[in-house]
């Protein structure tokens, strides 16, 4: 036979209403003095409830007084509710993070690593963390809204439990895929959206590349050769100085031009700029043409052209060895001081007839604007200058007007020694000769290069072979641009050397600026960020799909008239748990905590419900298993069975 004792707290905590919610009985009974419960361990009362009317305002337990203020809450459906609006705002943050990631990738693409104190990868990681946190927040706010909205439409306990489980973890969402809904999809996507992090990290990588920027170069470079730099002229003798021989040796050996510019001196930097330096200007060009006939070719007395070697009395005649490419440059010993004359002879023919064209030009010292490349402490000319952009004529060499003066005065000279040096580099006298070759009808005369007459200058200007000339029939290209380039480079090299000397202003034209301020375009080889938007697209799709999957879970929030969560106390209040029955049914979790927050609960066996078993082999627990006030709960023992 079972016996039981029921206390006020037992009734309050579990099965039936507290005494101030009496069902049945007279009004006098409901307003009777509250009973006193005696502690099992003491004769003193351990809990009492002051509830004389249904409008009780407090409860005293173990010496604590807990407020039980009734809230006059009303059902007030509205669009303006905090939790759904916070969730929707979080979805907007996620969408904004997608655009922010795109902006970071777009702006950083091609930018130097050194310009970004915070790398794009770190920025993307922060943005991704914000996006994923916002998605998690939105999902967290959407889950209770979705669940409570389902309850307002009527659902079975099984369906509501399944809906709750589906939203708890990806495992449950996958397990309930046979009941596929937007909840399954949202839960799965929220769980795997973290893949957007690695995808965005792949979207920004570091590569080696080139960047360009506008810079200003400050350089010390003489725009003219000083009049005391190259050497002297005396009695038709040109003596080159040691200083002028150094640029000649460097050019002959094809050494790079050393020129340090602090603003462009890094090993991974190069600058293109226009600088002013010494050079030549071409003037007074004249040409003469001599026809070449078959009779002249086979005549040992025929001559053409005026080209001569260093011995003025030595002329070149054919004698079966025909001049085809002749180049010379020499100083002008007349009233034009500091000048040079170039003579270029080019022969061309088809079969055994053609022409010989001889062109003579005057080169004068000038200030020339050069397009140059500055890199690793070197300077390089970027174009073959035939005329060049002449800024001004250089007049820093004193004129020698008479032969008598030339013979008796040692004249410092800037240009003539350079001309002589250039002559060794550009002069040529290449010839062709009559030869024989076996053909279909036996041996026949043909043309062949006279190889011993070739030097490097002649070899690099060959365009056709004798007997096979095409187009104009010329065997060689015009070397004039190469001559001018050689002169310019010799003089520019000399200016670089002379710029290291002090006090050169008296030896150049007045008004010429030695210190140059030059705008330039700087190219730097460095590590750059490279963005691959394909990886970004993958991450963005994941984030936006997740946001779109979470969005429908907010449906119907404007139809719910109170702030509802999935807190166990909110659920208990909704199920009309006796422990919370004196809390307003429209209260939120915070109001429940405000009213009963100090009440201590414990999970175990309610000792207020005691049962005794007679003649039974099974040990039954002396009470009901549940969550109740701490003072009336005992820990369950192993092996106890529960009848209720």
TrEMBL record:
Matches recorded under InterPro entries: DUF3176 (IPR021514)
Region entry Disordered, spans: 13-49
Protein name per UniProt: Uncharacterized protein
Alphabetic keyword roster: Membrane, Transmembrane, Transmembrane helix
Transmembrane segments: 85-106, 126-149, 170-195, 535-558
Keyword Transmembrane assigned: yes
Amino acid composition bias (Polar residues), ranges on this chain: 28-45
Superkingdom: Eukaryota
């Amino acid at each position: 036979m079972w016996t039981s004792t029921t206390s006020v707290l037992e009734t309050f905590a579990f099965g039936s209403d507290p005494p101030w919610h009496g069902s049945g009985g007279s009004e006098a009974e409901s307003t009777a003095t509250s009973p006193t419960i005696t502690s099992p361990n003491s004769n003193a009362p351990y809990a009492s409830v002051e509830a004389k009317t249904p409008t009780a305002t407090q409860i005293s337990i173990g010496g604590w007084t807990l407020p039980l203020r009734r809230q006059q809450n009303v059902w007030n459906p509205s669009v303006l509710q905090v939790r759904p609006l916070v969730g929707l705002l979080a979805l907007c943050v996620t969408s904004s993070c997608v655009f922010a990631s795109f902006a970071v990738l777009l702006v950083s693409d091609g930018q130097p690593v050194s310009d970004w104190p915070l790398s794009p990868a770190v920025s993307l990681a922060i943005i991704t963390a914000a996006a994923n946190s916002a998605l998690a927040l939105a999902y967290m706010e959407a889950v209770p809204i979705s669940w409570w909205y389902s309850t307002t439409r009527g659902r079975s306990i099984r369906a509501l439990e399944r809906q709750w489980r589906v939203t708890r973890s990806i495992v449950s969402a996958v397990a309930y895929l046979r009941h596929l809904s937007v909840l399954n999809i949202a839960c799965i996507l929220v769980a795997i959206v973290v893949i957007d992090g690695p995808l965005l990290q792949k979207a920004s990588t570091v590569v080696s590349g080139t960047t360009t920027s506008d810079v200003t170069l400050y350089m010390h470079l003489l725009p003219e050769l000083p009049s005391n730099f190259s050497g002297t002229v005396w009695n038709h003798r040109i003596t080159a100085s040691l200083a002028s021989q150094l640029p000649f040796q460097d050019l002959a050996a094809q050494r790079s031009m050393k020129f340090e510019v602090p603003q462009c001196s890094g090993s991974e930097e190069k600058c293109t700029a226009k600088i002013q330096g010494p050079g030549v200007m071409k003037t007074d060009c004249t040409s003469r043409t001599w026809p070449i006939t078959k009779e002249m070719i086979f005549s040992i007395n025929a001559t053409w052209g005026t080209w001569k070697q260093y011995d003025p009395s030595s002329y070149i005649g054919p004698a079966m060895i025909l001049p085809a490419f002749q180049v010379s440059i020499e100083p002008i010993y007349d009233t034009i001081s500091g000048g040079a004359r170039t003579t270029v002879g080019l022969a061309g023919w088809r079969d055994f007839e053609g022409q010989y064209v001889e062109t003579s030009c005057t080169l004068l010292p000038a200030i020339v604007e050069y397009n140059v490349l500055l890199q690793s402490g070197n300077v390089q000319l970027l174009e073959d200058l035939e005329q060049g952009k002449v800024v001004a004529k250089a007049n820093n060499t004193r004129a020698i007007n008479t032969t008598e003066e030339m013979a008796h005065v040692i004249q410092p000279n800037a240009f003539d020694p350079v001309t002589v040096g250039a002559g060794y580099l550009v002069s040529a006298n290449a010839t062709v000769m009559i030869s024989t070759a076996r053909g279909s009808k036996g041996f026949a005369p043909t043309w062949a290069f006279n190889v011993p007459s070739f030097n490097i200058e002649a070899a690099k200007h060959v365009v056709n072979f004798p007997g096979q000339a095409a187009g104009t029939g010329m065997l060689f290209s015009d070397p004039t641009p190469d001559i001018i380039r050689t002169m310019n480079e010799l003089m520019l090299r000399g200016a670089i050397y002379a710029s290291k000397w002090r006090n050169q202003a008296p030896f150049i034209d007045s008004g010429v600026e030695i210190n140059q301020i030059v705008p330039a375009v700087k190219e730097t080889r460095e590590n750059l960020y490279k963005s691959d938007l394909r990886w970004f697209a993958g991450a963005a799709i994941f984030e936006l799909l997740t946001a779109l999957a979470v969005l429908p879970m907010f449906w119907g929030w404007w139809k719910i008239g109170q702030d509802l969560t999935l807190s166990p106390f909110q659920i208990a209040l909704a199920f009309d748990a006796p422990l919370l029955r004196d809390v307003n049914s429209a209260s939120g979790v915070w109001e429940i905590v405000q009213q009963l927050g100090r009440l201590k609960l414990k999970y175990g066996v309610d000792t207020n419900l005691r049962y005794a078993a007679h003649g039974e082999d099974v040990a039954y627990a002396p009470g009901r298993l549940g969550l109740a006030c701490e003072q009336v709960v005992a820990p369950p023992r192993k092996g106890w069975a529960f009848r209720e």
